[in-house]
Amino acid sequence: MTQAAVSYQIRQLEDRLGRALFVREKGRVRLSETGQRLLPAIRAAFASMGDAFAALGDDEAEVLTINAAVTFGGTWLSARIGRFQLRYPDLAVRLSMSNDYVDFDASNVDVAIRIGRGGWPGLRADFLFRSHVTPICSPAFRDANRIAAPADLLRVERLAPNDGWWAGWLAEAGVDVAPPPRRGVVLDSQLQEASAVQGGYGIALMTPLLWRAELDSGRMVQPFDTLYQPGGANWLVYREGRSRVRKIERFREWLHEEMEKDRPLLPEALWRPLP
């Protein structure tokens, strides 16, 4: 449509409503208060129509685009995603990783793995497991520093030593003394921490579910059974209007099947949804 045609349609809509949707001043146009009130509902309606038509077609040539939190995507998911593609060879898979929440309206992402409390407007969120961490290090570091009790961690090199999660884990493990502030190394993700730990530098708070291969092989060790829950959880999220899209349905089913295989590895409480 031409600019003149758009302006004409807007004028007709304003005449029908009896209210101005835009404020026109000095050659510029901005939404009026009425327009701002209508925008969220109108945007959601167009998104819903787009989702409905997408579900009827080939849906982007059957490419499943996944965005995952960096650590989950780079460990657990990357190690298993090939199984999904082998089960559904007609589906191509594109995996990207970021700790930022993806904007489904401004991207072609179909599903995302997020960490948080859930309840995101316009999105369906399937609970996966509760977030949890515990100290993990190399066996050489454990032996060299004679780590035998939780309190021993107060005197050794800890990655992200001032992270509040350390105080939380130590308290959970029965250590009454809060860790004093100290300088140290802070890395962006558990992927980087794992490299440092396996290189013999320090001990890090990590999620044992994501590092089973390294723990089972002995490349890394978990000195204590105590798990600390920071309060969030891992979720599979996608737009509410796309829950019946075939590729999303198949991925959701497969992901829950794979999670169920790991159920014996964690206490049952970590598989219960957040209150």
From TrEMBL:
Domain HTH lysR-type per the UniProt entry, residue ranges: 1-32
Keyword tags: DNA-binding, Transcription, Transcription regulation
Protein's GO biological process: DNA-templated transcription
Gene3D superfamilies for the chain: Periplasmic binding protein-like II (3.40.190.10), Winged helix-like DNA-binding domain superfamily/Winged helix DNA-binding domain (1.10.10.10)
Top-level taxon of origin: Bacteria
CDD domains recorded: PBP2_GcdR_TrpI_HvrB_AmpR_like (cd08432)
The keyword Transcription regulation belongs to this UniProt entry's keyword annotation: yes
Signal peptide (residue range): none
GO molecular function, one term: DNA-binding transcription factor activity
A Pfam entry, by short name: LysR_substrate
Family assignment from sequence similarity: Belongs to the LysR transcriptional regulatory family.
Name of the protein: LysR family glycine cleavage system transcriptional activator
Species of provenance: Sphingopyxis panaciterrulae
